[in-house]
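Issue: copy button drops trailing tokens. Both records pasted manually instead:
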Amino acid sequence: MSSIAARLRAAGLRDVRDDNTTRAAYSADASLYRVVPEAVAFPASAAEVALAVGAARELGVPVTARGAGTSVAGNAIGPGLVLDLSRHLHGILDVDPAARLARVQPGVVLADLQRAARVHGLRFGPDPSTHSRCTIGGMVGNDACGSRALGYGRTADNVEALRLVTGTGDELFASRGAGGPQTDGFAAGVADLRSVVGDSLAVLRTEFGRFGRQVSGYALHNLLPENGFDLTRALVGSEGTLGVLTEVTVRLVAEPAERVLVALGFDDIIAAAEATPTVLEYGPTACEGLDARIVDVVRRRRGAAAVPNLPQGAAWLLVELPGESRPELLDRARELAASVDALEARVIDDIEQSAALWRIREDGAGLAGRAPSGAPAWAGWEDAAVPPTALAAYLKEFEELVRRNGLTHMPFGHFGDGCVHTRLDFALRNEGGVDSMRDFLVEAAGLVVRYGGSLSGEHGDGRARSELLPIMYSAEALRTMAAVKHVFDPDGVLNPGVLVEPAPLVGALRMTSSLPLLRQVGFAYPEDGGDFAEAVHRCTGVGKCRVTASSGGTVMCPSYVATREEKDSTRGRARVLQEMVNGQLIDGWHSPAVHEALDLCLSCKGCATDCPTGVDMATWKSEVLHQTYRRRLRPLSHYSLGRLPRWARMASRAPAVVNRLSRVPGLQRLLFAVAGIDAHRSAPDFPAETFRSWFENRDRNGGAAEVFLYVDSFTDLFTPEVGKAMVTVLEAAGYRVGLTPREACCGLTWISTGQLDQAKKILGRTIDSLSRSTGALPIVGIEPSCTAALRHDAVRLVPGDVTREVAARVVTLAELLADHPSWTPPDMSDLQVVAQPHCHHHAVMGWEADAALLARAGVHVERVGGCCGLAGNFGMERGHYDVSVAVAGQQLLPAIDRSGPGAVVLADGFSCRTQVHDLAHRPAVHLAQFIAQRLAAPQ
């Protein structure tokens, strides 16, 4: 037990942890650094914050405040006590629409504040790309800006008042009221601060606040007499080195009545930068640069449909214009398009297309996590800014610097503010790679300073750039910053190593390693060179898995949404696995910390598509289970649920007997206890006739099959009515239907429980069987998880040309019908649907074809985001029931409750339909059943 953890517990702080799972989960943020904390505390009040800072100061333990942990510069990690302000201090205390002010705790997520303000037609102006999960406290910490800083300014421009605990333990209130800046508390410190300012007037006037995105260093120009000694603004951007926030009052602004997006295409990113000054003449709220290299990643990972039709070019400016009149705004947009020397311009007046483009831009940091070379791309020089008039010249020289050093990257950013984001493929694992990175950063710093710029334009300096500040500031300026730091934190306990007395920028780097335990892995990891360590380091920490209000088009991360625990997020789990592969804090596959972190992973695969870095936690969990239990005694559920197709096949031979036995009082409970199944769950009935038996006994028209139905165990043995509906729909569409061979099993249940040796054997036989028996014809999946296993898992477990050929022919019903030249769905415009896409369907196949089919049929659809919570074996296993129900309660159950009694619940997944039946007591149908019912109804 750590000394600081024991001290805080003894003092009454309720939530303090120093276990290895928690320490691993908080060992990194979104930067390239790794610093394992001694302990993590989760204060629930301002008093607990003060208690924690006081105890740490007495013990000489460093304190690092943390919000969502999305810092790209390494300013949210530390070796001592990490204070997670997001878990309990997330209240919106007051919204005053008349005064246009909101008072919040520091852990409030920006998106939650925006929802509260939107009711009044207001918003908080700055909106960084992490707006869906970043906290207000974190935004204050690094003076966040975002895409719309052109219209609304930086966070410093939008903060009215701050309450904080200084490094001395004093409470300080600083505000910018109508009567001018004011302070309350910390009187002696404020007096000392005035003295420091009085001795440094010249340097503050000449070196600080030179242009809009000068975020590096402290914002000390705000303390000048002519600026009213505005301590509130000066504290913004101090990166947790001067105090720990307990409350923030922010200014709100009115939303414009209308917005329109103009996309401008250029030959390259430098040409886009050259056009930026012209764009700024039109008063945009945003002017964002986007390179084709990032757009290509989206197309490869999510399909061409994920990218709207952009203008011709290899780089683009996305320009947002605000206005009160739609016609006037469209006229101004067309005038802008005509005035810029672009290859092509397009006014995008479609809300969905605009949203898709903004999503690509917001995911930039994650999408750029792999460089064009295919190697990992690292932060470190991801946030430089220059005055916009110098942007093109700076970028031209920077591109040459990148090329000269043999690096590749994908630039993007807030071009209207002169801010460029990128990640670079530093070869950190190579001999001399770390030194080469340092040399590059020093040269890049000199370049940006030569153009009058800032090392950081919004991310802060953190561990990544603080050592480079002497390149940007004079010795006198650095001494002034150190003097300010000493006033607020004389013992140096607040976020040491950041800004003042900086940590080495190449110290504590978070790099991949390949221990011997990683050499024999179950999956192929083709995108990562077969290297499990490389795979788990895909997570760069952007934290999109912490989004708690998912839209209808996202799933990740259901367990975090249910528990709000970092260890239960995709990122938290990745951090634990990263610690496992480097072998210092966590010892191997069998470590309790690894299994604690992975226990509540639903294996939903949502992260495989929703995480912009391409994390696939379901695959990694299967790998861990495989390595842990290979040739060892397994958990009971692995033998029962993990081998369910075998047991179900046996039971289907005497369905009536099995059904009667399952209803004998006490027998089901006993069987569930032996099988490791939660007692709250119910056992499905076995039908009198399997789907295969029905199909083989029915009257059929002659002729060879034109499509093959992939008959999974769930359809065949539990829900033959779904298979019958598939046959009805396919035959109505004019297809002759055949069934895949009986031995063709996808091995899904073996995969999800980590029985990969057996899964490989099963899939090997299946691929061979399907290759020989189905020719070149489409193989239509019925159960989404089994369809996804054939398309995704098979090529990673039994790689090869034959597997890829078979996987390429596996389609969903909606995909098949979308390619039918003459098929049209029946008119279903009178129907309301609540649709729960299966998570694997969303992640692997995508639900777009299903959505398009329903739209063609005129169905009114509410698409549910998130996961149903059952997720195959997860929700059936003992100990997972409460989380399973909590996940369902996030989106699925409320959507069903909102729907009228006549609404249809559409769920292709067997587990999804089971969860709806058990928890909502409503029937749910497969898409095939939904269509077949209308085909059978009188027209």
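Record 2 (pasted manually too):
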Amino acid sequence: MKKFSTVIISFLGFVQISAQKDSIFINAKLSSDRKTLDVEQRIIYHNNSPKDIDSLKLLNWIAAYNNRKTPLVYRKLEDRNNRLHFAKQDELGKLLEINITSDKQNFLTDKKETENLYLPLATPLKVGESVVLNLKYKLQLPDKKFTGYGTSDINTSLKYFFIVPDHFDKDNHLNRHYLDIEESVSFNTFWKIYLSLPAEFQAQGNLDQTADNLFEGYLDSDPEFIISKEKFPVINVNSESFKTEIKLGYNISDQEKENLEFFLPLHLKFIEDRIGSIPEHLFISEKFRAKEDFFGNNDINFWKFNFKLFTDAEKVDQDYFGIISKKVLDEKIIADKQNHHWFKNGLKSYLEIQYLKKFYRDAKLLGNLTETKVLGIKPVKFFHASEVKLLDRYGLAYQYIMTQNLDQKIGERFSELSNFNDMAISNFETGSLFSYTADKMGENQFNNLVKNYISKNTDTQVNPEVFLKELAEQEKSSEYFSDFLKQKNRDNFRLKNFRTKNDAVEIRIVKNTSENIPAKLETESREGSKRSYWVETQKNERLKTFEIPAEDIHKITLNNGYIFPEPNYRDNYLYTKGIFANSKKIKFKLIKDIPNPEFNEIYLNPRVRFSNAYDKFLLGMNFRNESLFDQKFAYSLTPYYSTGTGKMVGTGGVSYSFLPAESFIRALTFGVSAAHFHYDYELAYSRASASAGISFQKPPRSTVSRGLSVSYNYYQRDLSAKMIANRDYDKYNLWSVGYGYTDNQMIHEKSMSISTQGMEDYNKITGEAFYRWEFAPRQKLSLRLFAGYFVRNETRNNTFNYGISRVSDYSFSYNLLGQSATEGLLSQQYILADGGFKSFIPGSVNQWITSFNLDTSVWKMIHIYADAGVYKNKNFDPKFIWDSGLKVRVIPDFLEVYLPVQSSLGFEPGFKDYGKRIRYTLILNLGTIINAARRGWY
């Protein structure tokens, strides 16, 4: 604090020439343990709103770390990160004390736990006038592991902790919460900051350092510091047109520094030529590097093997071009990230695309992996993925999420975007559209437009929609861009057909939109020579006939290389000669792959799997049209050879999904299927099904999913002599209607379902509710409530009864290893369904049952469970049953073992056949594993 008086005098002198820009002076002392920060601060705040204001708002964003109920905590849980939720008190961040005064009044600030501090003014602040606020406060810094800002054993990172005005809310009346999305709030501000640090520590940040621990300068972003005992690298780039100091907030190897000294001047010159002047100072934190580096170029590590997609120099080149591009854009453009995130993100991807076109035009998406040999062969070459270019990644990412109808409109608020859509939509789709427009109008003309727009909006908040209007004035065919912000893109081109007419080829192109979007048509000869044409379309012109010279044309392509974000690229190819003229070729492939839109692909996938004790191992071949991307029309046929019976079995199905872009329905799917397997020794069953299902729309960040299904199933099965004697069913029809609700929150997981099922002999209604609470890290309590009731039951036996401890799998839907097993290890398999009891309580239920299942963590993989319920059979009184025991979670949710202890049957460990009473669950479903892994992305 020794420099306080000297600095404040010079600071006040500076204020006289700072016009209408806010100024902030900070004198901050970091405690010796780097856990608390004492701050003296002065804010000169100008009323830049169009009207007088009667209150001020300051952002107290350290309060976002204060407790479990802040928006930051909820957002982290959506990302499957529970660290902040389970944080200890000394790991949290908070405002410990504060005092705020001005020349005219003292402000009462008793709500230190709120992120928005509202200060009522004694007299309104007139337009253009200013007020000086004096603040004195103390902060408890959060642990750095939560957001990358705060303190750790090694260093301290400061950003978003100082109390500042919200420059995006000139009227000072809207709540803004810290969500860890790197949004700037204190733009166009002069800063002067003195940091008093513990011995041996030094600071480095995005402000110019004018003396020891003294930093000052104008910023259009927020001040950021890394405080450490280490001195991190600084790279100076000197060019004829700019001189830039690049400070890194982390250490790098000597080789990486050498690579950066070579690449950074090239990067900055490339960026300057396209968007204008380069800032004199750039600071790159470790967090910023991790967020903005080049996605998808990392080495692949498998067991003891390491496969390099790109050389170390290439990775540094690709990574830092994206990092530097975004950092320069952040320093030059002031934009509200919540509403206009797509502008800077799109320009970043546009610059990347232009850079890849120049230096990596022929590079593959999988890099050097395509040339990797295993046992003398190059296995990746068998996949179309080996032919996909690095440039194609922008269109493919959008295509992948769009095929699931989980994409979002470009103009969606940033906090509502899923993590994957942040990349695929805000960055890649927007960047592709910028690149497409630049290609059409000329890259130099587009770059000059960007330069001029950024230049004339220096130190001013931009409205990117104005940029789009200026773009449309220079390139009329880009008028559609503004509409793309407001809705999910489903604009599509289709090559309908062609015909030769005299010395020309007449090509008919269909588009599903009335917008005047141009298309890029490309022809290719058998020798590989190519010619390109831009096809202009008019408003409301959905069918375009376009003529080109009748040269040696072998193939016609629209928007080749995923250059325009279409929902369907498969209708953008036509051949002009041979049996596939005016149609697509068929291609057979092994194993799922990135789809090749040029072909109708049929995937032949060898299958080997264990089915059950009767069919045993199944050896077969799956024929399907689905690649790694979902398709609306899907078929699958899988004939198997059953090693257990020596007979042919298998499954097959066809489905079609309607995926309305703007609807409360995400997917409406109709399908038919059939199956034939064995459910007992020498006994087979056949099933024919027809179904319809609705998956309701949800915000992609939401963990909630809802669905409605209707199905009809016809079963025919072989019967043993004993079953015939018991008048068992050899043929039956099942109708069912069900609704399901699931909320896969990380802490409070919930699900609910209700269904009705019937046939000629019965009708029943079933309901189930499930709740799982993670009360401590990896420690959970699970509760399940089940209820089943027969509205009508005139069945001949117990086939369709509710199970108590075993399910009657008459619908063949539970994948039981021993479908008909009544003894032995296979009969001990446990399925959480119906009553859900783990002890072998005999009998089944033909009237009604309610049960309650409880499971809770005790220690590591050891859980205890308890079940209780009441059931009633016809002509019998209701009966209460219960059980309890231990559960060992060998592989949670996939392999678990149940050890019964006490139940309605007695003390079970005392029974001689206790080994036969132990139960287990075994789930061998790859889809379940994949769905669990992708939570938090979309």
